[in-house]
From TrEMBL:
This is Adenosine 3'-phospho 5'-phosphosulfate transporter 2. Its main location: membrane. The lineage of its organism: Eukaryota, Metazoa, Chordata, Craniata, Vertebrata. It comes from the Eukaryota. Keywords: Membrane, Transmembrane, Transmembrane helix, Transport. Belongs to the nucleotide-sugar transporter family. SLC35B subfamily. It comes from Smithornis capensis. Pfam families: UAA. GO terms for molecular function: 3'-phosphoadenosine 5'-phosphosulfate transmembrane transporter activity. One of its GO terms (cellular component) is Golgi membrane. The gene is Slc35b3. It is found in: Membrane. The chain crosses the membrane at residues 66-84, 96-119, 131-152, 158-175, 182-200, 206-227, 247-270, 282-302, 309-331, 337-354. It is a multi-pass membrane protein. InterPro entries: SCL35B1-4/HUT1.
Amino acid sequence: EKQKEDNSSTECSEPGTMDLKFTSSRKYISISVPSKSQTMSPHIKSVDDVVVLGMNLSKFSKPTQFFICVSGVFMFYLIYGYLQELIFSVEGFKPFGWYLTLVQFGFYSIFGLIELQLIQDKRRRIPGKTYMIIAFLTVGTMGLSNTSLGYLNYPTQVIFKCCKLIPVMIGGVFIQGKRYNIVDVSAALCMSLGLIWFTLADSTVAPNFNLTGVILISLALCADAVIGNVQEKAMKLHNGSNSEMVLYSYSIGFVYILFGLTCTSGLSPAVTFCSKHLVQTYGYAFLFSLTGYFGISFVLALIKIFGALLAVTVTTGRKAMTIVLSFLFFAKPFTLQYVWSGLLVVLGIFLNVYSKNMDKIKLPSLHGLWKKTVEERKTRTLSQTV
């Protein structure tokens, strides 16, 4: 019996040992073999922190986040637009739009590197291939846009750039498989038509249409429509930070532009010209890049929190404000066309905000209004009869 007990204890101990090994192996497997989502993005956190210029927006409520981002976009990009037009007002600078973009990308890369060193997590989360695509689109957006100012006046450029709401929605459908409702479509149409109508009077004051400039700004518009959706998809999938996005996309873009200018022999004349006008070129370019960097940080935060469509709606509204300020700083004729088109833009903004908060904002339907009116008429008739 003692031998049987020993045998039974041995038999019990061996399975126990096996169970322990099996359990430990299961633990090892669960750690080393991540799920599909973890394989795609091994650094995804349970709570996404959105940090802009050292400020953690995740601590604030959604309305406060929206207010901070919109304020930052308007403040920095209004200065950005003024400096952009000021730089191209320097006599002889118009042919060097690509060199301005090169300098701008260089400053952006330095600013992004500095900001990345100030945060704790310095890992690159988004794949390099994705950054190469984003950098190419960024070069197309900003380079072609800057170069088009050598052929078009500023209001004409704004007219084209205001039309990117609809391409962004089309890009969202094909790139991310999004589906937009009739309210989003109406908001995009109102914003685009309103801003085109708003800037039409200004463009007719000094029309300077050029086929080359139209082609350049059209290509920039197409790239701009795609880049917002690509950035949104990459940042949400891999939980990339704003500083990481700016650093890698603009540093790779800097290499693209430098290679292109070197191959086309466009680098030497630009350097020679800018060396003769240091303050008006590099000085303005530094402030231009600094405000643009701060602005793009808030735009990326808007994309990450609220999506590409709302971000483009805000930046499009900022363009309308740029035109308004141009009337304050420079003497221009005024017509009621600006008032009606401005109201159309406001309607587009309201429709977009309503679309994002349809569960909180309940507007009465036409059927409900009609039914209520009929009931009120019946009540009045009954009271008069009595």
